Amino acid sequence: MNRFIEVCISPSLLSESHNNFQCTVVTDIFRATSSMVASMGNGANWIIPVSSPEQALSYRTADSSLVIAGEQGGDNLAGFDLGNSPLEHAMQGGKSIVMSTTNGTKAIRAIQNLGTGEILIGAFLNLSKTADYITSKEGNLLILCAGWKGNFSLEDTLYAGALIEKLLQKNKLFSIEKCDSALAALTLYRQVSSNLADYLRSASHYKRLIRKKHKSVEQDLAYSLQIDKFNIVLACQGDKIQILNF
Amino acid sequence: MNRFIEVCISPSLLSESHNNFQCTVVTDIFRATSSMVASMGNGANWIIPVSSPEQALSYRTADSSLVIAGEQGGDNLAGFDLGNSPLEHAMQGGKSIVMSTTNGTKAIRAIQNLGTGEILIGAFLNLSKTADYITSKEGNLLILCAGWKGNFSLEDTLYAGALIEKLLQKNKLFSIEKCDSALAALTLYRQVSSNLADYLRSASHYKRLIRKKHKSVEQDLAYSLQIDKFNIVLACQGDKIQILNF
Known about the structure:
The structure is a homodimer.
Chain A: E1 3-8, E2 23-27, H1 32-41, E3 46-50, H2 53-62, E4 67-72, E5 75-76, H3 86-90, E6 96-100, H4 104-113, E7 118-122, H5 127-136, E8 141-145, H6 154-170, E9 174-175, H7 180-192, H8 196-201, H9 204-211, H10 217-224, E10 234-237, E11 240-243
Parallel strand pairs in A: 1-8, 1-9, 2-7, 2-8, 3-6, 4-6
Antiparallel strand pairs in A: 4-5, 7-10, 10-11
Helix pairs in contact in A: 5-6, 6-7
């Protein structure tokens, strides 16, 4: 039986029709899910994704040992330990993290609220292992791009294309025939995959980060586009994001 | 001064941020805007786009000489003179038409309700003349893809890419640097433009029309992908779509 893959290019386009997927991969390449994989790949205990900076701060009030991380509209947040840079996150070691971002953590919350199946956290950094895990299971797959404030985002769509490419290579049961955005993501990825970094330097999100003068934008881009730096699968388990035993 | 082009890939993603464009091109290649261009290019007087079949029927009650056209969910409508096939529309001659479709006429109504600037009707059938007209004016351009029931649609996005390609060739002031979906649409179009029909046969919308067993799907596809069959610009003027004197 075919396993259908669909791509939802923005949480704003999520609807009741998306609640019948056995698995959803949420991605926010610049930079929430890349930061999550970087944290967990470098020994963090777990991450709790929340929908607002206020929620993150209230976790800290309850437990001062937590690291609170995130950004809002691309800006760092007062009173937070960390921003949303994968490079910063890679240096945290064995901490427990609460994270609030403009797009990524909101997308996770949106799909959780829809009450669908398993939720994975995807980035180029853990591309193949995530594909291996999905292949080992059954059912249909939704790839949910966090986008930027509800709109299309190039880097998230390209990750969707990369994941689809991996899955199609692994198993002939996977099919994208029901979903135009999956076909578009795959076509785009195949077209630019040999030069992903240069292509993404022309993306609006990269330019937005450059305008915000984040000191590590260029390094974050290079870091986030490393394929398979970590051999881990991240999944939402209860309110936490943790490494799956696989 | 740069003239920015943005692409909104679905009316579901329209927001207040889209009300500052001097011009919007609405496109629904399969098949509403292709049908509109086919009608008007073959001598129709004008078209009134409406949001529901009931509205179209009430126009007919008021004036029995009107042709009412459209579809709902891809199905033809009882009591309607015409469906949504560009080929059928091309054969209407000098009629006045009221049209209701699942995506295209709703997209036109959505952008009208946002109270933005000039609204044009775009299809491959009138690509170059539309590009000429936009180039002759000033200001920023929004390309609004009608999509399918709120979701991404490949053929509309490829039309957006084709129009962007034309505009960038015509004038160096046009810029897509603020919009990832414009860059993605252009990249996709450049990748598949030499084989548009074959690529679109793998699109979900084409397969949906095939499943609905519309007799003219294959001919409609070929008809709709003809570039510059008509040398006309269509614009919303009051409640009507008419040919612009240009």
